[in-house]
Amino acid sequence: MNNKEILKRIISIIEDSNLTNSEFAEKIGVPKSTISHLLSERNNPSLDIVSKISSTFNDITSDYLIFGQSQQENTSLEVPSDLFSEKDIDITQDSVKESNNKVKSIIIIYENNKFEQIDKL
User: Is the confidence at residue 85, as pLDDT, over 90?
Assistant: First the structure.
């Protein structure tokens, strides 16, 4: 997540909605100080803030806030037919254990634009 880009989008939402920072805070259900700290860059945007904004504003999605993607953008991917050919499939348990990559966190985005971040794996 690029916090500065998320912050720019939040500022744009506040301005486009013709709300003061206090009105915006009240509308999404957070203390005024939360928005103040966010706009002064004292705090970074949290997934809770993103979730509250996307659930309050019907035309704002969490994808837009986090990635800058609007609902109009086509985000579907075409999977090549030969992506999982028989020769590439390794069904041994050792293939997973040999990986040096470790998952740091997982972000689950639900259909209703609610988030859950799992950091402790």
Answer: no
